[in-house]
Amino acid sequence: MKIGYLGPPGTFTEEALLRTYTFPQDEAVPYASIPDVIEAVDRGEVERGIVAIENSIEGSVNVTLDVLAFDSEAKVIGEVIYPIRHNLLARSGLALVDIDTVISQPHATAQCRKYLAAHLSGAKIIAANSTAEAAQIVCTHPGNVAAIGTRIAAEIYGLEILAENIEDFQDNQTRFAILGKEVPPRTGFDKTSIICFIYQDRPGMLLQILQEFAYRYINLTKVESRPAKRSLGEYIFFIDMEGHIQDKVVDEAIKCVVCKIDRVKFLGSYPRFKVAK
Amino acid sequence: MKIGYLGPPGTFTEEALLRTYTFPQDEAVPYASIPDVIEAVDRGEVERGIVAIENSIEGSVNVTLDVLAFDSEAKVIGEVIYPIRHNLLARSGLALVDIDTVISQPHATAQCRKYLAAHLSGAKIIAANSTAEAAQIVCTHPGNVAAIGTRIAAEIYGLEILAENIEDFQDNQTRFAILGKEVPPRTGFDKTSIICFIYQDRPGMLLQILQEFAYRYINLTKVESRPAKRSLGEYIFFIDMEGHIQDKVVDEAIKCVVCKIDRVKFLGSYPRFKVAK
């Protein structure tokens, strides 16, 4: 099976994919951006896509939510939760004291703010499109530069790990969505994701939506607002709940929400991620 | 009065500040990052700070929310809403067909995705820390590069505007928070911002918070979840409402929320932004 992911090789997405989801016969296909991965699923170029959807520190990955809401018919068919560990990577022979420039994706840089302030406070911070791209740049760069990136990127680009686990917060985890086109059958340990579009500014609308779930004892695992991309103050809401669309109460609750608001988009029902060990 | 903002000169924040908030006697002081602006307010190095808090397309500016929630005692004392217009900037003499590389802050690049796909589909996309930094790079870069940035950056760095208003969505507006240390008096056209910390996973807790406001006919202008930075599935909620903490119903509602949850942080009461013209 072909599985699209955010490349180049060495990204956190690839690491999460290789360590949790793929089988030996699968082929991981790198794409240049998250929208490209989702489009590849829509076009049928790959059977599956894996995209970061939420990080325990940074919050939602906006581009993923927005493409799923506005530009795609892909369904969420599974989820993977993977711990994020940041490492400081440099060419062999460089030591921490030599480093005067740090290159990384701005989110990774932000997640290591305290480490950088403590150990590399004078260093120049340069942005890259991904941590893997940063590692790629560092491996051929003649200067005293380091990248923030994955262990797998260190292996791929032949870099030394100058410092490991440099992230400010422990429990830095990312939830990835596995995308496809179908709705997997109910397993009894499932989650359902919907998007509620509320275009008129009716006070209390979110309250009324939440009541439909509370009334049926459906536990919501996430309520997240995103702009409706129309004007400030208009929002759409991503709601994740326990249960499967084949569960009668889930189906009923969503039908009652559909009656109340402008539009509900069903993003999928899928097995909840089970933590290994 | 000294007002801190995200530099270098030519950022959207500077443009919004100069066009809406400053008086001739004020001094705008550039800082390298949003956390630096907020810290400068906390330390009293500047009397005011201006930071982007929310964009109508991209959503909340996570770093602003996180620093206000976890690392600062600064208060929101005002707000400014300013339209964002993206422009393609290049050295004089270059035409659109010449451009093979586009440099910008990744959010700006994301906001011009459709324009770039239509007009510069083969171009390499390079990340910068801000649109102003991108303009700064482009003005001395020997290659066929363009930046996505402000009109003010074109003036500062002597660049030509190859294309204007290239953003994908109209109504691209950013709301900026003005930070200080005091609570401005009630004007009768105010907003109040709080942060609700809910550490235990108690189903329906958000519903119960929202009910306190609905019961008192207080209109919420924003409900936004952010990770609690502890583990996936734990959230804090930013709530903006109409009214001032000196309004009896607002004060009462917040006191009732305080009784129900782990912690409520009062971010400020301030005059709502009045759109000019």
TrEMBL record, chains A, B:
Reaction(s) this enzyme catalyzes, per UniProt: prephenate + H(+) = 3-phenylpyruvate + CO2 + H2O
Record-linked NCBIfam families: PRK11898.1 (NF008865)
GO cellular component terms listed in the entry, alphabetical order: cytoplasm
Pfam families recorded: ACT (PF01842), PDT (PF00800)
UniProt gene name: pheA
Protein's UniProt keywords contain Amino-acid biosynthesis: yes
Protein name in the entry: Prephenate dehydratase
Gene Ontology molecular function terms on file: prephenate dehydratase activity
